[in-house]
Amino acid sequence: MLVWIGFGIICPGPALEAAEPPPLQRVLDEGELIRLTNAIDVAVDSKDWQQARRFFADDVLVDFTSLTGGKPATIKADDLILAWRTNLFPAKKTFHLRGNHLVTIDGDQATVTSHGYAWNQLSGLSGDLWEVWGTYTHAMARTPQGWRVTAMTFTKTYERGNPAVRTATPDDGPPPPIASSPATPAAEGSLHSGSRVPPPTDGLELVCAVPPTQGVTVAFIDALLLPSRRPDEVLFVSQNKGAQWWGGTPAMVWRTTFDPQTKAATRPVPIQSLSLIRQVRGALLEATDGTLFTGGGWCGHTPPYVSTDGGTTWQAATRGVHPPNSTFVYAEAHDRVYCGTGYNPNPGEVYRWRGGETGDQWERVFVNPQKARNILSAMVGWQGNLFVGTTIYESTAIEKSTPVYLSRDGQVFEPTQGIPDDVSVSDLVVVADQVVALAHSTRGGVPALFRWNQAASAWERIADYALQTGKDSFGTRLVAKGQTLYAYGRRQEDPDPGLYSSQDLGKTWARLATHVAPRPTALTVGRGFLWLATEADAQGTAYLFRLSVVP
Known about the structure:
Blueprint: E1 2-5, E2 9-12, H1 24-45, H2 49-53, E3 56-63, H3 65-68, E4 73-76, H4 77-87, E5 93-106, E6 109-121, E7 129-143, E8 146-161, H5 163-167, E9 205-210, E10 218-225, E11 233-240, E12 243-244, E13 247-248, E14 251-257, E15 269-274, E16 284-286, E17 292-294, E18 305-307, E19 315-316, E20 326-333, E21 336-342, E22 349-354, E23 361-367, E24 375-382, E25 385-391, E26 404-407, E27 414-415, E28 423-431, E29 434-441, E30 448-453, E31 458-464, E32 479-481, E33 484-489, E34 498-502, E35 510-514, E36 520-526, E37 529-534, E38 542-548
């Protein structure tokens, strides 16, 4: 028998003298298979992406989970090469070495196992080298064009150095477009990837990755906005690594832009650091006149921010009697913008923005007299009314209190009836021209959904809330469009969490897509899509996905 070892050297096995010489075709095939695996490395190091693509079948099963996590996935070879080309930009130097090849051939199918070494170097980082050792397994099929790779697995033995070198993508301009078609896990399947994500399923599409950029590493995407006046943009705000409640790294506003022709997303660009706050608690609003509001806070005096130029520049909104503590939510009603605040030692309060001729400043319009309900956590405008939901925070008192207030003029806030006294209201949304509240009992038990009965001026219970969330979605809220509610969570009968929709105010839920990790942190709907943002993975990269919800 013949065993192929190393760089194509034929070594005799123990039964060589008694065995017939192998057919010439087998010897030629073995040599070609080894040459092909080596040639992949040569093409990658020389950044000859057209040549690298020629070695692969159109669809490739890729498994780099020992290095990047996630799950194996079958992807398009074009997407695999695109991920390599995006990550291995000209400034990043690479060197690959392969040896100890073992070849198995079974007709028109073959497997090549080899040891591999990869070296990456990128100047400008603190620690500019990254190395990895491991074992490759390439499955190949004979085609009319020659042998082609149909599956590729890398099993890591050891890595050392700065992993940011491997995950880094260029800061000096946008890389090739990331995803305009469902580009599931092209990046995850690659050893040379700046976009490691578990494979989305059921049509969930990766829009863009947010890797460490200009010294900022995202902890999680805190809020999402689809600006109505800039339909080719998405704005989002991130809480970043190094942020603490008392200070540290500020929050950052980002923008990603879609090419109007290809619909592909460019790499997100940081717009402005919000120097006085570290997080925005999911609060990001576009008013009817185009003014944007965000912020924010994390205990102490942490003011909101406002933008009047579509999000390009932001100013701390500290004129007037401005919010003294964390801001949790914004809403528009009576042609004005309102915000809900809270946190000890301040009570829950409502502030109204007086823009335009009166000057850009805040005025306080409501102070919640209920001490235990010291956070105003949900707010929505509907038919000239403003609804304000409250949360019991850091209190064991179950007082006779009001979960939701109603204001018909923005000045007087009246308690509403119908929701139990012991609940906190986390969400208020308008769906099917009705107001729906999601309430969580402080005594435990299953959360419940309520609807506002305008004729009776009271809340009516709809149903138990069937989606479990827990630690899997610590920042997402209910969102709605037209007749449909959308949410992230998990039904009891489903094995994994994901996205759901409801056409009956939350009585029943239909599963739309599975998403397990990274954990979702923001959710919005618009432009025919449901948009989901995440926390960062182990390499410091957060992600933005979308799901078509247009029939």
